[in-house]
Amino acid sequence: MIDINPQRTLVRYNVRIEQEMTPEEVAEGLFPVDEAIREVARAVFDGDEDEVVESLKNAIEKGKDPLSLINNALMVGMEVVSTLYDDNMLYLPDVIISAQAMIEGIEFCKEQSGEEHEYKGKVISYVVEGDIHDIGKKIVTVLLRAKGYEVIDLGKDVPVEEVISAVKREKPLMVTGTALMTTTMSAFSDVNSRLLDSDINVPVVCGGGAVNQDFISQYALGLYCEEAADVPKIADAILKGFDIESLRKEFHKH
Ligand code: B12
């Protein structure tokens, strides 16, 4: 069957001429059907933090579970943003604004869940020395917190020494490191060797545009992770007893 929307399409001699659609119109076709969830996803898409919180309140009033709204509504809205960004229909500032709105929403859902978070474990997150790109790290941190982990966020442009002393002090189950610049990603090497020198075998989950699996696999403690959303799954696996070798088997692409 030919997929033609008569309102948007002019058919003449088998040539389909589509009227250009705005990003908002395309997004409307991608949002979930459930009205309460749709409102949340739309608010994330619009990058409107107040609207995100308002729509979450409405959804919770309608009986939706606050924590499930993180995956089923906030993340869905962000996926629509990512899809349109990949299709060059949105610009990076749109992504950043939506991500911030999503993060606000996640914090709100956590507050509303009313569940006393008994932390599943402790994680340290940081951005490598010399690098101030911290959006990916913020996403990682927020997702881990939403899944019940305590995150010691060391921030951006963090000296190697500071990472090592934080690991010694906090004894986390894992560390997440972010690097978006090829000029600074070598800081992972220093963190890896300094930890090994101190006999600390904590997995260092690394991500961000500058690094890839081959680069990170050079380091005994390194585990590469492409998608921030996978980090809580890695933490869960560590709690189940996975060591670095088995984490690589499970999470690296072969
Ligand atoms: C936004 C941005 C900035 C913002 C940063 C704001 C902030 N608070 O983070 C500002 C304007 C400040 C900035 C500054 C600079 N930037 Co800049 N910036 C970007 C840009 C456009 C987007 C990065 C971003 O945040 N994307 C959104 C996030 C959500 O996506 P992401 O990082 O890819 O994250 C995904 C995955 O990588 C992963 N992930 C990310 N982090 C982590 C962490 C873990 C643990 C895991 C598991 C996964 C993971 O999960 C995310 C989604 O699933 C990139 C270009 C690009 N397209 O990437 C350049 C880019 C990173 N910047 C670049 C440069 C050069 C700079 C500057 C040096 C420019 C200058 N001359 O001043 C300075 C840096 C100064 C410094 N010392 O750090 C270069 C780096 C080149 C290189 N390879 O070395 C890039 C690639 C642009 C380019 N093409 O040249 N930048």
Question: What's the layout of helices and strands?
Answer:
Layout lengths: L8 E4 L2 E4 L4 H6 L6 H12 L2 H13 L4 H21 L5 H22 L8 E6 L7 H12 L3 E4 L6 H11 L3 E5 L8 H11 L6 E4 L5 H5 L4 E3 L6 H9 L4 H8 L3
Parallel strand pairs: 3-4, 3-5, 5-6, 6-7
Antiparallel strand pairs: 1-2
The structure holds cobalamin.
Nutshell version of this structure?
The chain is 51% helix and 12% strand. It has helices spanning 23-28, 35-46, 49-61, 66-86, 92-113, 135-146, 160-170, 187-197, 213-217, 231-239, 244-251, and strands at residues 9-12, 15-18, 122-127, 150-153, 174-178, 204-207, 222-224.
Verbal overview:
This protein has 254 residues and is an alpha/beta fold. The chain folds into two domains: 9-113, Methionine synthase domain (Methyltransferase, Methionine Synthase (B12-binding Domains), Chain A, domain 1); 122-251, Rossmann fold (3-Layer(aba) Sandwich), CATH 3.40.50.280. The chain has eleven helices and seven strands. The protein has helices spanning 23-28, 35-46, 49-61, 66-86, 92-113, 135-146, 160-170, 187-197, 213-217, 231-239, 244-251; strands at residues 9-12, 15-18, 122-127, 150-153, 174-178, 204-207, 222-224. Strands 4-3-5-6-7 form a five-stranded parallel sheet, with helices on both faces. The protein has a two-stranded antiparallel sheet with strand order 1-2. The longest helix has 22 residues, at 92-113. The chain is globular, with a radius of gyration of 21 Å. The two termini are 39 Å apart. The structure holds cobalamin. Cobalamin is lined by residues 92, 95, 99, 130-137, 139-140, 176, 178, 180-183, 205-210, 225, 227-229, 231. Belongs to the methylamine corrinoid protein family. Keywords: Cobalt, Metal-binding. This is Methanol--corrinoid protein MtaC.
